[in-house]
Amino acid sequence: MNNTEWYSIRALTLPATAVALLVAFFIVWLVLRVQFPKKWAGVYGDAVFTFIVVWKFSLIVTDFKAVIAQPFTLLYFNGGTIGVFLGVMAVSLQLWWKRQKIQFDASGITAYSWAIILTQSIYQWLVVLLNDNQTTSEVITLLVLSTLTVFILWRITTINRALILYTIGLIIVALFQPHGLWQPAVGVSVILLILGIVIQRAGRINEID
Question: How far apart are CA 98 and CA 119, in angstroms?
Answer without folding.
Answer: 21
